[in-house]
Specification:
alpha/beta, 11 helices, 8 strands, globular, binds phosphoenolpyruvate
Length: 250
């Protein structure tokens, strides 16, 4: 059977507990008859427990938008794997472009988060992607290789089993500009090729992210090497997200 497409909603800094519960309740029926796709939702930290409560017993997975590698301690503003698990999280996103480019997280820091969470048994979605000038200079794959390098240095095949990648061109996130289908395919194939040369484990599923909506999802999900989508804006839209799930189920 073909690999199921994973649709991950990144709710970013939207929806406090009360509104997040409403959104989760609205999405709950979507999970009933999923055959070809999986739904994962990623509320802000303070809404995670409320959302897992609403989604308990359903197939929708709940995750966090970041994670720290230490068990506990003097790390103001951070959240550990154990804390996330206690709230019902089964995965975390690392290296989102907003973490890298708004908050200055380096690839080394992102690798610490990624490897630490994987070692603690949490599934991780590791985001990579180039800025506009980097694409225009033909440096897309080099940028992604550099972002992956500190993770690949220590990644074992066992840890890789719990990893998902997300290719998100920075210039396509929240802008309404989607990468051209041929560029998505070329980049995903480039990542797969690089992975196969660098790691003994099979390449993880690679999601595409960047202004995915019901008008472009059909074409994106058909691209060879696209394992699903990481969705921001449309993931908290009461009509668009159900439409995206319907498209993934076609
Ligand atoms: C994202 O947050 O990862 C994202 C891709 O956002 P959007 O879908 O709004 O571009």
């Amino acid at each position: 059977m073909a690999q199921k497409h994973i649709l991950v909603g990144n709710w970013k800094m939207n929806l406090g507990p009360a509104k997040a519960m409403e959104m989760a309740a609205h999405f709950l029926p979507l999970a009933k008859n999923l055959q070809k796709s999986e739904i994962w939702v990623t509320p802000p930290f303070t809404s995670i427990a409320a959302v897992t409560d609403v989604l308990k017993g359903s197939k929708i997975r709940v995750g966090a938008q970041n994670v720290h590698w230490a068990e506990s301690g003097a790390f103001t503003g951070e959240v550990s794997v154990a804390m996330l698990r206690e709230c019902g999280c089964s995965y975390a996103i690392t290296g989102h472009s907003e973490r890298r480019h708004v908050f200055g997280e380096t690839s080394e820091l992102v690798a610490k988060r990624t490897l630490g969470a994987l070692k603690s048994g949490l599934c991780v979605i590791l985001c990579v992607g180039e800025k506009l000038d980097e694409r225009e200079n033909g440096a897309t794959l080099e940028v992604i290789k550099a972002q992956l390098a500190p993770v690949l240095k220590e990644l074992t095949p066992e840890l890789a089993k719990n990893l998902v990648l997300a290719y998100e061109p920075v210039w396509a996130i929240g802008t309404g500009k989607v990468a051209a289908i041929k560029d998505i395919e070329e980049t995903h194939q480039g990542i797969i090729g690089h992975w196969q040369k660098s790691c003994a484990a099979p390449c993880p599923p690679i999601l595409y992210g960047g202004s995915v909506d019901p008008d472009n999802a059909t074409a994106i999900l058909k691209v060879q090497g696209v394992g699903g989508c990481l969705i921001g804006g449309a993931s908290i839209h009461p009509e668009k997200f159900p439409k995206l799930v319907a498209i993934a189920e076609q």
